[in-house]
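Re: that chain you flagged

S.,

Sorry for the slow reply, it's been a week of failed gels. I finally had a moment to sit down with the sequence you sent. For the record, here it is as I used it:
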Amino acid sequence: MGVEYVVSLEVFSEWYLERKENLLQEARRWKEKNRSLADDFLKEWPLEKLKDMNLDEYVAGKGPQNKSLCYEIEHGKYSDMYLGIRGGNAGKFGIYWNKKSGTYYDQKNRPIPENELQAKFSSLKNDLLEIIKSGISESFDDDAFTWKNSFHNRPAMMMKLLCAYSEKPIFSGINMNKDQREVWGRLVPLARVGGVYKQNFDITTSISKLHPELDGDLLSSILWSYRNSVLNTIEMEQQESDNSENTEQVEEDIKLPSKGWNKILYGPPGTGKTYSINEYKEKLISGQTLSHSIVNFDSFTWKETILLAMKREGYPSLKVKDIVALNLVQQYANTKSSKNAYQTISTVILTNADEESTALTSRNGLDIFTKDATDKWSVTENGKIAADEAESHISEEQLSDEDFFVKVVTFHQSYGYEDFIEGINAETEDGKISYQVKDGVFKKFCNDAKQYPDKNFLFVIDEINRGNISKIFGELITLIEPSKRIGASESLSVVLPYSGDVFGVPQNVFVLGTMNTADRSIAMMDTALRRRFDFIEKMPDPGVVRDEVGEIGSIDVASLLEIMNRRIEFLYDREHTLGHAFFLNIGTIGGLKAVFENKIIPLLQEYFYEDYEKTQAVLNDTQQIYIVQVNDESDLFSNVFNELKSDNSDMKFEVANGVSDDDFIRFAMNITKVGD
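Prediction finished late last night. Pasting the structure tokens below so you have them in one place:
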């Protein structure tokens, strides 16, 4: 049975009015950020500069130092202006620089002959200028919006530029080429002339007529929220339909490795996002077992690894290729992502061989390997002593099932591609520095998952909103999509830049992120990330507190949470409300008092920085038990200065310490009071 849902300008209007205050608050923040970026962009890239720019000022592919137009709007300073355009192939810009081949390529990823390059760029630049001019003058019937213009089918890039160059906010920062059937085509039908550009203009202006307070700058955020609401409704109704047909099968699907998904749990602090991770672990990982031990190779070298591997095999005589194949050597090689393990091992053996076995001038004289007449290598008595020494420093760990099937990382501002996918790592071997490719945590995790396709693997990214998504994921932002996973209908893989490995994401990897909306609104998230993850809201639930804590003394703890959150939502927004988890696992007045003093009041101070009246209002601290007004300034100056007036007329407050239990009870009982 098909999913029934309604999308129209009238339905949008109802949806908007129900959420108007919160939507406008968020949209104004987004507008301020976009306008600031757009102002800087127009100073750096006025239309006059576009007319005169040369090829290298335009093309992507020459790195951040080039500061080209294409680089800046995709990855640089203006990457988050209105909408993101990351992902896909650089051919989307019409011409780009291919670093590997050292030449320019066209949109079909073919090298451009040198004698044709300038003509192609001139034509491309002319198309770019024409479509911008036609758009900002609302001339949608021009040839610029037909197949004759090479940019007409690049709506993401062009909507970004049209929003920036338009004197009035007549466009919304959304690529309406996507979600056309589900959302945009139902709001306003796709225009026969002008396509998605005219449709974007029509939707923006139609809504502005219905709601004059809205313009394209504000609608960039609001329409995106509406789009997410519609798609979530479709998904929920589809799930309900599926559940009613076969509930047991849906429950079983959670366990299927071919159903890899990407989800983000988002909400205010203390709403159980971290707790929910354990529920996902239980659903996906529970019952999976695997006998798996690993050697801890921290601080180990190739030489020590080879010696230990030979010892564990009983010190056999082996050719280099057979040494490379030893299990322990392979484990170590996997930690180094060496592109040529054979060459590395051969060099290590020769460097540490005795004088009879090699003519290598850089031999270090340790004499721990020796070669026989059949070109097989064995360990000398010196080598056996070194092997015993190495074994005394190595530890072997038995991984628990959770450690193997589940990985938790936390994003932060300095977290990068090298930590997540792969990077270059400097290593010292016998006093010599070498540079090896080292796998990042997500690449290692995916490689483990590929070895056990019948098992589920859960990759958790805590504080996902704190990281620079394009910097961390790089080209993998596309590969994590379920439809792009290995073996899926639209399977994709990429060649990684450092190792040259062909890499894809297996279907049995489940990616679960968490984000605290008090730190960063969901509307401010990287567009590419939002498009590839399902967002699951986790909001405060006073019912949990009522069931698990109830009353402490005569204080209804759930009621405290409810009224404080209503006040916070009124004074700030719902994304900064207080989570129920703050009030769990307490049962005494002392415990409740500690929660307010150590968690609630400091958090409110952070929310309402320097505005203690609002903090006082949320707590309804009319008795000034915690938020105390300070007025006495009589002891600051001599009488000679009695006539001085402070330029700071704001009331001054301080947070009281050492509040007694009796005063705290009076404070807590007063929180829920309203009116006189």
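What I noticed first: The radius of gyration is 31 Å.

Talk soon,
D.
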